[in-house]
Amino acid sequence: MPRSAFAPQSFDPKTFRPQDSLGYLIGNLRRALLEELDKAFAPHDVTAPQAIVMFQIANGVAEHAADFCRNLRYDPGAMTRLIDRLEAKGLVRRVRNSKNRRNVRVELTPAGNAALPHLGTAAFEVFGIFLRGFSKAETRQMFGFLRRMLANVP
Amino acid sequence: MPRSAFAPQSFDPKTFRPQDSLGYLIGNLRRALLEELDKAFAPHDVTAPQAIVMFQIANGVAEHAADFCRNLRYDPGAMTRLIDRLEAKGLVRRVRNSKNRRNVRVELTPAGNAALPHLGTAAFEVFGIFLRGFSKAETRQMFGFLRRMLANVP
DNA sequence: TGACAATCATTGCCTAGGCAATTATTGTGC
DNA sequence: GCACAATAATTGCCTAGGCAATGATTGTCA
Question: What is the reported pTM?
Fold first, then answer.
């Protein structure tokens, strides 16, 4: 089957099928994923973006709001308010540093740490739904593709 | 390399890397794509969601607001307003049908049809950025993966 | 050292999507 | 044919992200 059936090189209004475009597929996938994740996280009163921030803190890959923004391509203003909400729920707390007073470290509270494994297993159950029928090799391959696409863009 | 490096079967707070999760990758990809598409469409004063609706009309796969909503997993209220904006720009028009007065057909105006090829080529340039370095086989394979994931979810 | 650039967090403002309720219209089963 | 369910489109309300501006702090370089 020629590539053109999936990703033609140039635009032709007659043959172009929006349902097969990258934007359509990624957009729908994101909405479906968000829907399922929010449903799975709802009992813990946490949204998907909030959970990803908590996972990043727990994993140690990020601890400042600016890190989260870069990692998640997120708006700084929105991140401030997202952390506000997490803090209001008592899952996270801001810690000022006397050495560096410019940025604020965000850390999990005991309640946040306690919620983490529940959020994690809930997330994995959702991922399992989407990856149903994928072999290990296919899964590995697809994750590689996604990463390669992200690496192609600044 | 074991699958666990990319998609472990179960959650482990120690080893789980949020940057490798499906949600993170799809979310970031969607934001990057949206950013590039909006930049590419900006000269035509059209956003990415608006463009996808126009493409669907042009391709004939959908012509009612409810169709767009199902295809794009979009909220009906938001779709009403999206069409309002497209109509205000003169790119689209609502056509009432005397046979079926419940739903409204949305069609492209001459201006909408004129803008279409520009939007299409702009979109393809963006897709080309993300797919840089992908062989035809890889592209085909990845689109298949994305569709399979979507088929796994209601 | 001192001016200037860069970074970080925050705020206000605007836009847009999600949700629930409403109205109008059409289909279905008794 | 009629009651009732189902579907479409719309509206109001709320939430949340994008953008621009601001203030505070830190790094850099002449």
Answer: 0.90
